[in-house]
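Q: Got a minute? One more chain.
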Amino acid sequence: MAKLWGGRFSKNTNELVDVFNASIEFDKRLYHEDVRGSIAHAKMLGKCGIIPQEDVTEIVAGLEAILKDIEAGNFSFEVALEDIHMNIEARLTERIGAAGARLHTARSRNDQVALDMHMYMKREIVEIAELLVKFEESLLAVAKKHNKTLMPGYTHLQRAQPITFAHHLLAYFNMLQRDFRRLEGVWAGADMMPLGAGAIAGTTFPIDRFAVAEELNFGTVYANSMDAVSDRDYVIEFLSFAATLMMHLSRLSEEICLWSSTEFGFIELDDAFATGSSMMPQKKNPDIAELVRGKTGRVYGHLQAMLVTAKGLPLTYNKDLQEDKEGFFDAVDTIKFSLAVYSEMIATMTVNVEAMEQAVSKDFSNATDLADYLVRKGLPFRQAHEVVGKCVAYAITNGKFLPEISLEEYQKFSDLFEADLLEILIPENCVAARVSYGGPAFSENEKQFAMGDEIIKKQEVKLEDLRKKI
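A: Always. Here it is, folded:
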C-alpha cells in the first residue's frame, strides 16, 4: 500500500517496520476527535479561502459518513496506514478524490495528533469527574448513616482513639475533593488548541487558528508552534492526577481488605462485589479491592514511563511521543473502572456496627481522654501522660481495661482522679467531646455532611460548565 508520505522514498518499508511503527491498534479510539478536528480544519480552510468551498462541503460530508461507518463497525483499519489520521484521510480521498487530498493542507500529523489527544482528554476528564462525584456521593451517603457508629481510629495500625465510621469515610471524601480540584487543573492544560502549529513552524497559509479553537470549544491557543507539537505536560499532569487518585483508592482498598477479614469483621462486602475460592468453599474474597490496590502500581508506572520518555527529547516532535498514548489510555480505563465499581461496592456493603463498637470498648483508645481529664484538673500534660501510661500498664498487668479499674485503684496514681472520671472513659463521650473543627464529634460530622453536600453541588455546577466545552 502506497504511503501518504512516500514520495521521497524508492523502497517499501519492511513489514516488521510497518507493524512496529504503527499506532492504529491503540490510537483508533481517537476516531471521533480526529473526524471532528478535521471537519473544523476543513471549514477554516474554506473560510480563509485556502481551499474551495465546494471541497469543504465534500470533505465534511465524507468525514461524517466515515464517522458513521466507524461507529457501525463498518470501517477496516489498516496497519500499513500507521495511525488513525492516515486511515481516515486515505479512506476519505478514496471516496471523494482530490477534495480529500486537500484536507491536509496547512497541517501536520504532529499538530493533528496533539489536537486529537487534547480533545480526547477533555472528554475523558468530564466522564471521570462524573464518576468522581458519584463516588463522593456514595461515601457521603454511607457516612450519614453512620454518624453514631463508633469504631477505633488507628495510627501505626494500632488502636489510637475512638472515632466514628462516618468520620473515617469523610476523610476519603476529602481526599476525593482534592482529586476533583486536581482534575480541574488538568483541564486547564488540556483546554489548549495546538492545531495550526504544523510540523514545527506553523504554515505559510493564512489560517485562522482562533476560529478552529472556537469551533472546537477550546479556551485558548498555544502561543508557540514548537511548544504546541512537543508539549506533553498535559498528559503528565493527567497521569499525576491519576496516580494520586489511585493512591487514595488503594489506601481505602487496604482498609476494606482489613475490615472485611475475620480478624476485624467490621464490614461484609455484598456478594456481587466479592469472589470465592476454587478450593476452599468458605472463602469470600475482596478481589475488587485487591485489584484496585494492584492496579495502582500500574498507573504509577504509566506516569513514570511518560516522565522518562519526555525527559531527554529535543524539540520538537520525536517518534518517542507516540508512547504517550497506551499508558494514558490504560490509566483512563483503570480509573474509570475503579471509580465506577467502588461507588457500588461502598453503597452495598454491610457495616457491622456491633463489631466496631465492641472493638472500641475493649481497648485503651480512651487513654488520651483520661490524660486530658487530668490536664483539666490542673496537671501539666506531660505529667498527665506519664500518670495515664502507668494506669494502662497496671490495667494490662491485671487483665483489665480502663473503665474496669476502680476509683480507689486510680487514686493510687493521682489524687486528682474523682468519681466523674468514669464518664470520661465512655467511648461515646470521648467522641462527642472532640468538637475541635474537623474533629470526629457527632456535631462536627453533621457540619461536614452539610459541607459535603455543598461541595458536591459546586462540583456539579462545574461539571455542567465543562460538558459545554467538550
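A: The chain is about 65% helix and 5% strand.
Q: Perfect, thanks.
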